[in-house]
Design brief:
2 helices
Length: about 100
């Protein structure tokens, strides 16, 4: 990961940390290389990260990232305390069709 991108990720985590209860279970959607999932896990959270197949970050994996179809979350409702997603919306083609 580039130093610039790493600084952005660190800043994002610093901003969200005050809102997370210690020990929470977190689902990260759009995990990429798993950098933020790894950082959250190192801070005591239970983290599961998912991303679509063919993510451009697969070769840089730092944390296990499960593949999913991008539409159906492969976990039951209420399985996680928190859902976290960062820098994902700009990668969704035809996002206007997904609005509910």
């Amino acid at each position: 990961m580039s130093p610039f991108l790493e600084e952005i990720r660190k800043y994002e985590l610093e901003r969200v940390m005050p809102f997370l209860l210690r020990g929470s279970s977190i689902l990260e959607i759009g995990g990429g290389a798993g950098w933020q999932a790894k950082m959250l896990a190192e801070r005591g959270f239970t983290v599961v990260s998912i991303d679509v197949a063919g993510s451009q970050y697969e070769e840089y994996r730092l944390w296990p990232v499960q593949v999913y179809d991008g539409k159906h979350i492969p976990f039951p409702d209420n399985r996680f305390d928190v859902v976290f997603s960062s820098n994902v919306l700009e990668h969704i083609p035809h996002i206007e069709g997904l609005q509910g």
